[in-house]
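Batch job 17 of 40 flagged for manual review because the log was empty.
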Amino acid sequence: MLDKATSQPSPDGIAYGRAPQHHNPVWTEVGPGTPCGEFMRRYWHPVAVAEKVTTTPQNVRILGEDLIVFRDGKGRPGLLYPRCMHRGTTLYYGKVEEQGIRCCYHGWLFDVEGHCLDQPCEPNQGEGHREKVRQPWYPVEELYGLIWAYMGPPEKKPVLTRWDNLETVGPDEKYYATGASIGAGGDDLVEIVPCNWLQDWENIMDPFHVPILHTTFSGVQFVPEMGVMPEVTFHYADHGMKYVAYRKLDDGREMDRVTQALFPHVRIVPAIDLSPGAPRSVGWVVPVDDTNFRLFHAMVVPKDYSGRMPRLAGGKRWSERTEQEHRDFPGDWEAQVGQGPISFHSEENLGTSDIGIVRLRRFLQEQIKVVQDGGDPAGVEFDPAKAVVKVQAGNFYRA
């Protein structure tokens, strides 16, 4: 018989009669008005790579909302609700001018903060009327090569978080930003990952999949040293969690690999080539909606860095591989997207190696409850003097 409390099958393993599978909506659903969605809306989110935002309007979907992003003729980025507030056609087909974006239907002109500047079909260009209407918009800022948006209550808008490992750029370095699926197991040709954001973010607190998925199952995907099963401790750190994975390597070196998962969806992973010290990059697992996410990264790189992804074994990129090749060499994409659009949490059987997952989910649920109760979640800062976060992640070798 099925244990309906746990949704687990009978001892003989027969699949018939299982209770309906379900996900936990509190952790995963991000639309307006949902518990996690309102939690997410208390933070700034990267929504686009800055150099790709031009005077050509682009569709953007984030947290279940459809928007458009563009730069006006003065270079100012704007993020607007796409349905023109006049008669509802999309501003995606609008024309960007010096002061803002003009709707293709009747020519209403909106600036990057939604003010209506012109209504050419109205007497006196709508003077006396255009001041009473405003196209819905969101505040944006530009930092580290990314366009950031705040989509929450105006009175709760925090300062934009900065990261100490990104603050210093040397004379031979530059910022490089990407919105591709590289760190999610894909490549630079694919932007949207078709599964729930949590499936990637919580994976950051799962060090035990590294020696299996990335090393022993289908061959070395990073470096052979990752095949050493680590001794791991988990800690609450700043506005999230970190783990310390200790490895004694075959060459006698001893290393602590520290990885962080911070709110709302930050991932800070040390260099995969095991180079020492803090990484020069930060990633964000940004929910597109409940069943898709986009992975943004900002990093400090040498000036001659091109951003081109190296070819994998066989001379192919990840997106060029056949289905059989994905079966032969699965990575994070295959493992996480393979959980389904939203993983069925009711069917999980967690073990001692999942303690990081359990703690991170519990911490997330606690912070969602803080917002529901009217408070400010961890990691939200209103004092500009406290906007810089000290990164604790990195590869640290013991003397």
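Reviewer: the log was empty due to a logging misconfiguration, but the result itself is present. The radius of gyration is 23 Å. Unflagging and moving on to job 18.
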